[in-house]
Amino acid sequence: MIALLLFLLLGTLLFWFIKHQYSYWNRRSFPCDPDTNIPYGCLTSVVKHEKSMGVALYDAYVKAKSPFIGIYLLFRPAVMIRDAELAHQILIQDFTSFHDRGLYLDEKRDRMSCNLFSLRGQRWRTLRQKLTPTFSSSKLKAMFHTSDDIGDKMVEHLNKILPDEGRAEVDIKDILVTYAIDIIGSVIFGLDINSFEEPKNKFRCLVRQARRNNLLMLIFLCPSVAKYLVRLGFKNKTAIGLREILKDTIEYREKHNIVRKDMLQLMMQLMNTGKIAEDDDNWSTKANTTTGEENEFTLDDIAAQGFIFYIAGQDSTSSAAAFTIFELAQNPDLLARAQNEVQEVLARHNGQLSYDALQEMPFLDLCLQETMRKYPFPFLSRECTRDYTIPGTQHVIEKGTPIVIPLLGIHRDPHYFTNPMIYDPDRFSPSNANYNPNAYMPFGAGPRHCIALRMGKINSKLGLVKILQNFDVEVMGKREIIIDNHSAGIQPKGGVKVRLSKRAKPCH
Ligand code: HEM
Ligand SMILES: *[C@@H]1O[C@H](CO)[C@@H](O)[C@H](O)[C@H]1NC(C)=O
Ligand SMILES: *[C@@H]1O[C@H](CO)[C@@H](O)[C@H](O)[C@H]1NC(C)=O
Ligand SMILES: *[C@@H]1O[C@H](CO)[C@@H](O)[C@H](O)[C@H]1NC(C)=O
Ligand SMILES: *[C@@H]1O[C@H](CO)[C@@H](O)[C@H](O)[C@H]1NC(C)=O
């Protein structure tokens, strides 16, 4: 009897709590969706696996009308910013009120959670400053040949699987994911891997595990729950495995005095000397003088950054190249322009692809820009770090509230980009430029924009050029990507299928 009463009481309390939570925006007369679904808010369809998180947020964007609205992410009230100018204000001018992402972070007990993406406040700022030189154009130039080699291995692989005569269908996304993962394994983890020939190597197997579960969403949606799970022992096996790999590689390099021009080398320099040299020829991990600078960057920190670089880098880089090929295959005139540009520039450089040659392909730049408009990572996130009155209104966003900027919605809004579903690289050409630049943020904006913007651009462009240079892409009818319901980003269901054939060797 008492048990039953207790049960009823608890049930009522829970009901009240949820009801109360879901009246958060109404109580503040903040604009919000009148028919909110209890108990998952705008993520109901995500929980039911009927939509991906990106599409659910896209739908919420399309449905609403006001420049900002209160939404519910599971139980948490959050603000969606629909207006590009307001988004800019928040990301750039008013950054000091929104400097964190509010993701799971446990600095004391889980050092591996201290990555650049999740870190907050001053710790984030310090690390960002320290890591920035790693991504300078001269450092990237020095690493170019590594990406170039991996690109060649991708071409070799395609040559193996394609028939000598005629064409065959390939999942170009899958191929480019392998390319992107090998670049990260090589440049960031210092490994000598070829996943095209050895698909079951240690690195691939480890990172493959990471793609299979949903902890990522939990880290975003319920950071405090994630924290307790980790404390209870749900340690991240992938992260631990990657740390082991790094430890071995670092020890090996130090023991044998090996200097490789890659990011791991620079992070070792940071670990041993306290900073990364501005001098582009200095890849040494030994300090000339003891500066007495406090050394807080440890092996765990290298592993945490390596891991987040893997998460942030592989899907984004491969998607940009794969979706470009997918779109070019549907637009024969654009395809011809892209192919001609590649041929012309290569002819000018004696057939040699180099970092500089890659800079001379303006049309491909437009294509990649347009791809990243139509297929961005679907949302940016911030946390309000101090009470903020939305300019020109009486509405206050309270400290601690998550902010969502639905990039997919903004990038596909006809208000900002005419005919948004039409793939039109020329909309970005300087002579045309008929779009609202504030609405275009494929790499985010403000002090927390993508730290690896250059690297992402170079590697996706390189992958694209390798394919256009060596293969013919068969033209196909118009179609749209089908987005997988289980993903956060734009994960194409069944891959990105295109038909390729070997290019007839030019006769000399
Ligand atoms: C075409 C490729 C890429 C795209 C489209 C892309 C896009 C983005 C976006 C949209 C953000 C969030 C920015 C914001 O919140 O304002 C971001 C952040 C970030 N990206 Fe990328 N990214 C790419 C490649 C990479 C690569 C290759 C790496 C690592 C090697 C990387 C590492 C990061 C990191 C560490 C952050 C967090 C920065 C911070 O909070 O300080 N990204 N990226
Ligand atoms: C996603 O779920 C919806 C609703 O259950 C279904 O109609 C749709 O086919 C699914 N899409 C994919 C790509 O699985
Ligand atoms: C480890 O964390 C990543 C993202 O941070 C996630 O994708 C992966 O599923 C996690 N792995 C395990 C075993 O929890
Ligand atoms: C290389 O750079 C590191 C970090 O800035 C510095 O400590 C070291 O003294 C430099 N080495 C040389 C040979 O200049
Ligand atoms: C570091 O040492 C090298 C050789 O020992 C020397 O050439 C260089 O000038 C030194 N750099 C600094 C910053 O002291």
From TrEMBL:
SUPFAM superfamilies listed in its UniProt record: Cytochrome P450
Pfam family, one: p450
Keyword DNA repair among record annotations: no
Alphabetical keyword list: Endoplasmic reticulum, Heme, Iron, Membrane, Metal-binding, Microsome, Monooxygenase, Oxidoreductase, Signal
Organism (species): Bactrocera dorsalis
GO cellular component terms, semicolon-separated: endoplasmic reticulum membrane
Subcellular localization(s) per the UniProt record: Endoplasmic reticulum membrane; Microsome membrane
PANTHER family: CYTOCHROME P450, CYTOCHROME P450 310A1-RELATED
Bilayer disposition of the protein: Peripheral membrane protein
Cofactor: heme
UniProt GO molecular function: heme binding; iron ion binding; monooxygenase activity; oxidoreductase activity, acting on paired donors, with incorporation or reduction of molecular oxygen
Primary site of residence: endoplasmic reticulum
Superkingdom classification of source: Eukaryota
The protein's name in its UniProt record: Probable cytochrome P450 6d4
Family, similarity comment: Belongs to the cytochrome P450 family.
InterPro entries with a match to the protein in the record: Cyt_P450 (IPR001128), Cyt_P450_CS (IPR017972), Cyt_P450_E_grp-I (IPR002401), Cyt_P450_sf (IPR036396), Insect_CytP450_Detox (IPR050476)
Signal sequence residues: 1-23
Residues engaged in binding heme: 450
